[in-house]
């Protein structure tokens, strides 16, 4: 997740603790959504022609679970703060997003990203649910990547983030955009951190986890059905 840029909870959720008792995290119930609302929000990440055939995952107290198996290789879900916060840069933005319970970042990963990036997001989520700090999550992911416990990223791959209702940490709502996973890249079309909606590297340039963003026309933003 780049730095830029209803609720029908079961009674048991009211008693859910802060994530693994780490005081930096709000109570887990603040991260939860009603299942139907989350499915609709996840599908709003991409055009219907993609999301109607994609696998859909929803966030639960034990991580992301598949609720619909698609047939086109795409995977749509709603990232939370600890799922998609930057790994390294800048640290203050990473930390802000990591602990933010309001972040709702619908994303729909293409087939290659579903194979190579999704396990990274799922590991980040697992560590967040264990109450690990932002720095500990970064260290855990880096170690897992070095040991081959999560896939290497051999090539550029992509994801839709076209939802009209995305909330991206301190940025809040932002332009619909394409996420570009760019292992090792330091710039995208000559830019790093944009001051306006230009294609650019958003996070973690020069690392295996470098992410670029390509904003698209705001008229392409997708509204979640029923919201």
What does this structure look like?
It is a single chain. The protein has 227 residues and is an alpha+beta fold. The protein has helices at 35-43, 48-51, 81-84, 91-98, 111-116, 118-129, 134-146; strands spanning 55-60, 63-68, 75-79, 105-109, 157-161, 177-181, 200-203, 211-215. The model is unreliable at 1-17 (pLDDT under 50). The radius of gyration is 16 Å and the shape is globular. The chain has seven helices and eight strands; from the N terminus they run ααβββααβαααββββ. α6 packs across α7 (134-146). The chain has one domain. Strands 2-1-3-4-5-6-8-7 form an eight-stranded mixed β-sheet, with helices on both faces. Helix content is 25%, strand content 18%.
Task: Give the tags.
227 residues, 8-stranded mixed β-sheet, 7 helices, disordered N terminus
How confident is the prediction overall: mean pLDDT? 87
User: Count the helices. How many?
Assistant: 7
Shape summary: globular
Low-confidence region ranges: 1-17
The percentage of residues in β strands lies in 15-25%
Number of strands: 8
- Major sheet description: 8 strands, mixed
Order of helical and strand elements = HHEEEHHEHHHEEEE
